[in-house]
Amino acid sequence: MRKLKLLIAGLLICSGLYASQKEDIKFLDQLFIQKKYSMALQESNRFIEKYPNSKYLKNIIIRMGQVYYMNGDYSNSIRVLNKALNLKKLKEDDKNTIYLYLAKSYAGKKEYNSAKKIAGMVNRSTVDGKDTYEDILLSIGRGYLDNGDYLRAQSQLNDALLLQGSRYNEIVLNLALAAYNNSQYIKTTVYLDEFYRGGGKSNEGLVNYLYGSSYYKINENTKALEYFNKLIKSPENSEYKSLAILTSVEIYLKQENIEKAKSILLSLKNNSKLYNEALKSFGDYFLVKNNNKEAIDYYSQITSKNNSEVIYGIALSEYKLKNYDTALVSFRKLFTTKYKKESIYYQMLIEYQRKNYSWILENINLVNGINYLPAEKIAINNLIGTSAFEKGDFIKAKEFYKKNYDMSPTKENLYKLIVATSKLKNNKDIYSYIKEYNNMYPTDQEYRKNITMILANEYIGDKKSEEAVELYKNYLETNRDTDIISNLIDVLIAQKDYNDVLEYLNIQDSSEENTYLKGIATMGMGKYDEAEIYFNQITKDDSKADKALKEKAKYNSIRNYFLWEKYPDVVNYGEKYIQSDSLFGLEDVVDKVAISYFRMDNPEKAREYFDKLKLVSNMGDYAQFQIGETYYSEKDYLKAIENYHISATTAKDPKYRENGAYWEISSLYLMKNIPEFTTKSNEFIKEYPDSSLKDNVFLMEGELYGINGDYENSIATYENLYNETLDKDLKEKSLMKIIDLNQSNKNFEKELEWIEKITTDNKKTYYTARYLIRKNEPEKAKIELEKLLLTDDYKDFAGVSLGDYYLSKKDYVSAEKNYDIAIQMESSAYKDKALYEVANIQKDSDQLKDAIRNYTKLYVLYPQSKYSLESQIRIAESYEKLEEYKEASAQYEELLKSKSTNKDYFLEKLIFLNLKLKKVEKAKEYYLKLQEVDPKLSEKYKNFFNGGDKE
User: Fold this and answer.
1) How far apart are CA 132 and CA 141, in angstroms?
2) Per-residue pLDDT tens for 735-756?
3) Which of 239, 671, 796, 946 has the most beta carbons within 10 angstroms of its beta carbon?
4) Is pTM, for the whole model, over 0.85?
5) If we measure between CA atoms, which residue out of 738, 773, 741, 774 comes closest to residue 756?
6) Cα separation, 501 vs 489, whole angstroms
């Protein structure tokens, strides 16, 4: 969810807004972010009163709508924001902001059509508009997801995903949830992978469960266990963890690792719910394995005997044992449970197994009045239709298959209808059904062969042999099937068309070379999955391709996996390739295996293969340098230095010699090895005087000396860089370093000498002013500071420094006036100090309300400021002085959570204030905490809280 500060940020960049208004708006923004809602509303009213004619009043109204939304008061948010839409002179950004929270409020009320209507009004031509539109689509998608409408959720979230906006990761995770709930498990893992690639780290328990469960659903159980184990070992206790435990049992059972599954089962004995669920998993497992007696044994141990799921498992086990009578008893028990539909289905199925087709046809009425789902109705109709088909009642079979096709016009249902219809004589429906099949499924291969033979038989039966031949030939243009060829030959023989008979007898398969070239083309197009299939056709053991073609296919298969970023596959197939007698592209395979190991966070194995690559003459320099890189990435700088040194001294390629020397120096710099660094850097400058890396070496050298307090050598290095570099930016940077180092070294004479080299007047004045302040020459410094007040870059520094000057003179009016210069600026590094000093002046002059406001503004807007903690303390003290004990107490409670070491002081204050508020029990809580923090200090309250007078 975008923070409300986005609206405020939009205000702050408006050039027509006075600085005081900017500061007040920024203050309001931070109050809201820190959930200080009461003060935020007070300040909003204060703003309206203070600036009654401000043209930014509309933004205050918009913000109130946002506040309502954030508090979940969607109706009031809609009311206020609709009012805001009627304001005059709304800019596009204003409208987009209103649309955002108005649409989210409608989504919060589940009025999605209204939210979509608002989304359509958003101006998407700007970055903010695009972000707004993305937020709205995400909110609508989440709403659909929460309501279980996964298809609509995916549709909305996919629309949001296409925007590639700032909420991309959040959208991807929600798409993973929608895909999972919609049983699209592969797609779920794809979204989760994308979530991690985007840097997603939140919701770890949920993400691990989704990964594990999705992999489980697609039978990738090793991966599933990896993620479930992460969740099981985590400290969290959640439903996801329980599900992970139970699913792990199921996986171990599927893997035939019965002992592992049993160990988990035994560990659950003290948790009857999970134990029963695990027993059921064992029962289900043995049921699937057709060890039905064992299944019944586990089901029977479950304590909840009337559990319909257990009865259903027992019934299925008995059914599989062909104990039909016993199974029927159990299935009939289920007639009044949630398994009623299954009860009827298995009663029919058992009678079907007994070939009692007549019973099924006579008891069709069992299904009447039951509200079946379409898929369930189709299953029942299939039993009835199949029973009718077996009894030779093709009319009834066609009737029930037709019902299925009308409900679900799938390819399978159409095929059954065609088969049943083909059994009826003189039924011309067969042609229309087959025509419908051809129109709807022109590329289908599953049923095309059988339907081709059915239609050909119809043609032959209707004395249309030519049509049958044409049909067979059309089929063979895209398919090769011995049955079809055999049937065609039979027809051609009957027609005495022997030339065509010979033609079809000589039909050959597609060439291996063409299949290989398809792999190369699809790899170049980025269709790596298709390329994999083509290459595998060539490399498989029973392929008829020659050795040379197989070798090329294996090499390109490894390249394909590398481009696909499937690094484990690169390693797997690459190592096999290296160990074989294959030579085609061998050095490239070794390189790709090494890089793959590196990208799999296994630098040791990467180095092993880079060592192999060094044996190849034209790859040796590259491989040696890469070994250094692997150590550098591990921060093993000693090993990195050793290997970079080899590159620097032995490489034939000048590029690797220079880079090796430079990165050897860089590693020495990171190790703070000054003597060796100095030697190597001097050698580098001498060896490569024109290197583009030379300036970087100077920078490292100067910085290294400075870090170690060797200011003289550091200054000398930067002076050398200043004199030699042609880069203007580096010259300027080195000059600033020289000035700063002379300042740290308290060499005023040298500092001033280098300040004089500054070519920018304002910057020179700034450094001169700082210099004079440090030399304690305030009157001279004042002259320079007053010049800086006229600049843009140093105005705030001048204001604060002049404020300090007047404060030291006890001229508080002038001090506050100058501090206010920094406060009113758009941005300044000195605002926190200026606010602090102004608040101090106000506090000392008993302007306590104003002081509180400025102290609050300081720590709210600048929480990292060194004045932040002291400001909070002074707020509490000011409230206390005003006898506003409730507010003072709240402030001390907030301070108690801070990193301050004055816990004892805060606790004493909280004891005192709660006693003032007559909250004795609360005061006692703080007394007990004080006992833990400072037992000695708490002694003075002991008698009071252990029976003394509490009035």
Assistant:
1) 14
2) 777 777 777 767 777 777 787 7
3) 796
4) no
5) 738
6) 6
